[in-house]
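RECORD TYPE: inverse folding
INPUT: structure tokens
STRUCTURE:
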């Protein structure tokens, strides 16, 4: 149940599992020195802590708030506990995705994270935490504009990055000839491009900045052009194993 919540409830839940109280309670039954063989439950807890340390504590946008997980991992390692290897496929869901988001979606996510952090700071109630809570409330209320994020510019930057990848992908596909091989690392991981990126809709009434709209349209045109080689692209995205491009695949 804990693993399911961590992988599906986002930052608000991650903030709770990174508290001292939760982590101390999680390892409360661990002996001071590791036994010859840890129990099944202990092994599962070690696996979870290792998974959190190698994913959300490294790749999360809010990783600075998860420091106690890293501290607990170091403490258990110092005591002599060894952590089981985490399967990449099990931990992949905790890593951030490359999905494009609108400025409104980015702002909504940020507001939800700020709200969760504010509640946690108030719950702790120490003088330092209350001081940080006061700073955060000023940001949320719009009084502190120095740390305000320009979500529209950030969204446009993300579009520009993927647009560049689409251009490179198009150039690479055009350069391949019958008999050439595509090996691991040759193709960008642009999975679900057709459904998640090309379906991106822009509402002119809500997005008045013409530069933003122009970038979106230019990228969609570039991505569609790349997708004109469907067999090659689909095969490249499905597998990272090498394969040979046949003459009839380039038609």
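DESIGNED SEQUENCE:
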């Amino acid at each position: 149940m804990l693993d399911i919540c961590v992988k599906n409830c986002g930052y608000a839940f991650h903030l709770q599992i990174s508290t001292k109280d939760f982590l101390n309670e999680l390892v409360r039954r661990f002996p001071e020195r590791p036994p010859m063989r840890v129990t099944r439950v202990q092994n599962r807890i070690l696996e979870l802590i290792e998974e959190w340390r190698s994913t959300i504590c490294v790749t999360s946008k809010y990783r600075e708030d998860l420091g106690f997980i890293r501290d607990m991992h170091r403490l258990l390692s110092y005591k002599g506990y060894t952590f089981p290897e985490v399967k990449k496929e099990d931990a992949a869901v905790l890593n951030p995705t490359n999905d494009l988001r609108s400025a409104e979606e980015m702002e909504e996510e940020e507001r939800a994270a700020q709200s969760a952090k504010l509640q946690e700071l108030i719950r702790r109630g120490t003088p330092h935490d209350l001081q940080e809570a006061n700073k955060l409330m000023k940001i949320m209320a719009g009084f502190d504009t120095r740390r305000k994020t320009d979500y529209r510019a950030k969204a446009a930057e993300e579009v520009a990055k993927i647009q560049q990848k689409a251009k490179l992908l198009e150039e690479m596909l055009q350069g391949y000839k019958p008999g050439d091989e595509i090996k691991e690392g040759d193709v960008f991981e642009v999975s679900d491009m057709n459904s998640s990126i090309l379906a991106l809709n822009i509402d002119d009434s809500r997005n008045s900045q013409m530069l933003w709209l122009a970038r979106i349209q230019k990228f969609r045109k570039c991505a569609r052009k790349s997708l004109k080689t469907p067999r090659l692209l689909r095969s490249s995205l499905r597998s990272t194993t090498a394969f040979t491009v046949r003459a009839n695949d380039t038609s």
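NOTES: The CA atoms of residues 18 and 66 lie 5 Å apart.
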